[in-house]
């Protein structure tokens, strides 16, 4: 019995050896034991992508690759996972294939598969499939500044690249092509309060998309010229009124006591949309009573000495939104803060500061850009703005308030020469449940002369701040033992700039990597400085 079992095992082993020998060709390369097909590539099909390219790679076949028996790979790309619609087929002897945005459409999903072509009578291998991929696509468009998008016109700008051919403007499915020869396009005869999509092309290749909405020409409740009394018009305005200011200079005459906006929410905006055309002197608005809020748009706001642009009174309750957009902010005799909201405990809506400039602000007391302490705000958003020459920090909310959480977002901003009062130079969230996000931002030159700041650039003991593409230059603590600030993960030092405390032009050098370092492939810092 034992001998019979041994004989059977011997016969089986011999048959297996013969099969293995038969699966080898004369060069020693292996084929499928069925003799009908080649082995598949021996590792996963992977895609590595960036803004303009995608590279697919795979492992080689187990079959020996010799001069007599060259191994060829067939790579297919399909627009669907079932491979019913093949977009492209390529044959190569390499173990990778690179495509550019000239070969494939950007922001479009492709499904890859690769196989080995048969040799010496063997059939092709089975397909090895990979995960879908897409080329991310460049976006050369520069974010518009506050005055670029108006009621009937828009100015579009983009980073230079040789060979750009046209911009396609689309609205409600209708598209119009504009041939281009420069890095700027001025659009006319647009429709107010309408959303458009612009796409930039280099031949047939997309080089960026951008959506913008023109202003509402019918937004004004009343249009005022400089001969009128702005203070009287504000006093007489109903809640929800939108006051349009014709070009010229207006004086609130408020002094350091502030001009009261009581129990109503109003908007004051330039009719032209150009902040350089309309100036409000003694621009110090103090919100009082229940539900007061304000929006200031397209204005030069000249604050009084020891004053604020917006101040929330101690008796204010349920404060509405506070918005400053496309404003030039100055304090000729020195001021305290752009927004002060720490006089009394209450709630408020969102503070939004966007497309604003305040260079050499002269904020010389311990408040900063936004003093948001002791008030439960819904959110703080500071975007596409430039500020320099201010004490304390950008946002401050150190006093702990229970039962409250809110986000603070700072995006595409430039800050220079700031910090003081022995506080955190960038932001102080204390132990509040605040989610601080800073991205695409440049911060330089801390603190102010003769001032000191904490070693930690940000104080936030409850939530870890989220920083992305944040760059700093010459940021120190000041004082006799001055040392560099410490930063959360996501911030990096830069040597691409050489600003000082007196810098007023923050244009990024033409070759600076900061022009393309943003999370969107565009610039970091206020976009106006990358034009």
TrEMBL record:
Superkingdom of the source species: Bacteria
Keywords: Signal
UniProt KW Signal keyword: yes
Residues making up the signal peptide according to the UniProt record: 1-19
Protein name (record): DUF5123 domain-containing protein
Lineage, highest ranks first: Bacteria, Pseudomonadati, Bacteroidota, Chitinophagia, Chitinophagales
């Amino acid at each position: 019995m034992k001998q019979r079992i041994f004989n059977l095992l011997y016969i089986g082993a011999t048959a297996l050896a013969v099969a293995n020998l038969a699966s080898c060709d004369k060069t020693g390369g292996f084929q499928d034991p069925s003799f009908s097909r080649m082995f598949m590539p021996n590792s996963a099909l992977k895609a590595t992508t960036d803004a303009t390219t995608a590279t697919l790679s795979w492992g080689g076949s187990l079959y020996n690759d010799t001069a007599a028996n060259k191994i060829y790979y067939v790579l297919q790309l399909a627009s669907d996972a079932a491979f019913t619609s093949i977009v492209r087929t390529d044959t190569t002897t390499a173990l990778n294939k690179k495509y550019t945005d000239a070969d494939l459409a950007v922001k479009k999903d492709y499904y890859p598969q690769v196989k080995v072509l048969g040799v010496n009578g063997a059939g092709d291998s089975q397909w090895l499939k990979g995960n879908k991929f897409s080329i991310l696509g460049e976006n050369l468009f520069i974010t518009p500044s506050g005055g670029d998008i108006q009621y009937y016109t828009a100015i579009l700008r983009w980073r230079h690249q040789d060979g750009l051919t046209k911009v396609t403007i689309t609205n409600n499915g209708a598209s119009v092509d504009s041939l281009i020869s420069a890095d700027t396009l001025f659009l006319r005869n647009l429709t107010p309060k309408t959303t458009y999509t612009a796409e930039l092309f280099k031949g047939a290749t997309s080089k960026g998309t951008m959506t913008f909405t023109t202003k509402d020409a019918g937004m004004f409740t009343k249009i005022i010229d400089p001969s009128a009394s702005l203070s009287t018009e504000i006093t007489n305005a109903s809640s929800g009124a939108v006051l349009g200011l014709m070009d010229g200079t207006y004086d609130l005459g408020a002094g350091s006591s502030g001009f009261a906006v009581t129990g109503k929410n109003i908007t004051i905006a330039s009719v032209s949309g150009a902040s350089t055309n309309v100036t409000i002197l003694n621009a110090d608005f103090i919100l009082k009573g229940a539900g007061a809020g304000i929006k200031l748009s397209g204005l030069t706001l000249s604050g009084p000495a020891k004053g604020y642009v917006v101040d929330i009174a101690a008796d204010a309750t349920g404060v509405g939104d506070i918005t400053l957009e496309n404003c030039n902010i100055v304090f000729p005799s020195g001021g305290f803060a752009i927004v002060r909201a720490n006089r009394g405990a209450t709630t408020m809506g969102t503070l939004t500061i966007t497309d604003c400039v305040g260079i050499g602000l002269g904020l010389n007391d311990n408040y900063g850009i936004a003093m948001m302490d002791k008030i439960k705000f819904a959110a703080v958003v500071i975007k596409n703005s430039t500020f320099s020459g201010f004490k304390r920090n950008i946002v401050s909310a150190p006093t702990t308030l229970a039962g409250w959480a809110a986000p603070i977002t700072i995006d595409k901003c430039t800050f220079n020469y700031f910090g003081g009062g022995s506080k955190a130079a960038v932001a102080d969230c204390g132990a509040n449940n605040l989610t601080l996000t800073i991205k695409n931002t440049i911060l330089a030159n801390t603190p102010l002369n003769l001032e000191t700041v904490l070693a930690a650039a940000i104080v936030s003991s409850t939530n870890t701040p989220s920083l992305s593409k944040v760059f700093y230059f010459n940021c120190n603590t000041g004082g006799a033992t001055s040392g560099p600030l410490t930063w959360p993960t996501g911030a990096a030092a830069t040597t691409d700039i050489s600003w000082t405390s007196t810098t007023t032009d923050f244009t990024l050098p033409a070759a600076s990597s900061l022009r393309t370092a943003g999370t969107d492939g565009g610039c970091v810092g206020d976009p106006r400085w990358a034009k």
